[in-house]
């Protein structure tokens, strides 16, 4: 009954105005009834998890919002918006949404489809005038762009520009970034470039600027008061890269794939609009269901966390049979995540100004899954990498010790064994050095605190094998 009271009170607030979020504790003026005993127990546990993981992984700051029965019941800011000057994180801070932009863009595309301004299954060439795809890609449709089945490559996610500096026009950027890696409609291939192409299609089909159209048709009607696809000069938290260093502000040439700027409240309002029974005027319930319905199977690395992809949403089936949808985002210095169970009105929003936050997100999602009474959601499997890495580190140091002991003792070794040991040693020693020189590796994201130890263990193993390869046989 209390959850019904919470939902009713929140909807009244949405209809009346957009209240600010508080810096600590509850957001959206959540009624005191929300903080019943089980809420306190769960949020105290979650707070401990967040604080411990942030300290362990060197995460600058984060904001977490819990949604139950279609309404927010708890939110809290953690850490620092700008550690260099001691500015604390607040729940009303403006974040880069990164790839959470994609489900928001999908809402815009579906809105245009319902109002007759965009045909989801018509070739995109019907609208395009400023750029045309090659003949092999002429059959691409907006639906394929929305569900990542257009066969387009990921695109250059490092294409970033200072907000005050000139950046390539969208058609020019697409002309450079577009690569067809599979036949259109052939299967899932996650693509930032595809969503940027969808942005161009939307502009060409409607004759409007993408950002202005999204603000009018989606952001404002959903009460996302601070959200925008245009860069804001507002004082934002400082992003931090995988090495924990501050990141200067930047913009992408395309906005639909990762250009959303929003507060936790904005993302929470968007998340709640996708829950069953939500009162919103942007899309029909059938259209929302279409966004959440899986259309293509997801494989590869994404397959560890999701089973399918709908229109702008990853999909999975929870251990109790309920359907869940989600999307996350990772950019240079920023991370975001939104996970929903539309049927029961449960959800969670997590934002961070640190690119080292993936294990933090996974730990939060594992705990949240437990509160729902289900096995950990797919994204929590990021923590599997930690277990594997710790095992590899222990094994690496053990092998290194054995190798050095074996070299010390000497013994009879064939030339083949010594050569093989030397070759493996070279790889194990040189790979960590090469990895340390890279700006980004997937390994850095999932093991922000452990990859230096893993690299050291591999290098020491290599040194042990090198000692075996170089140590002459002991004379009898």
Can you summarize this structure?
The chain is an alpha+beta fold and 476 residues long. It contains 14 helices and 13 strands.
What features would you describe in this structure?
The structure is a single chain. This protein folds into two domains: 94-376, DD-peptidase/beta-lactamase superfamily (Beta-lactamase, 3-Layer(aba) Sandwich); 384-470. It has 14 helices and 13 strands. The strands form three sheets. Strands 3-2-1-13-12-11-10-9-8 form a nine-stranded antiparallel β-sheet, sandwiched between helices. It has a two-stranded antiparallel ribbon with strand order 4-7. A two-stranded antiparallel sheet has the order 5-6. α2 (37-57) runs antiparallel to α10 (358-372), α3 packs across α7 (210-219) and α12 (415-436) runs antiparallel to α14. The longest helix is centred in the C-terminal third of the chain and has 28 residues, at 382-409. Helix content is 41%, strand content 14%. The model is unreliable at 1-27 and 29-36 (pLDDT under 50). By secondary structure, the protein is an alpha+beta fold. It is globular.
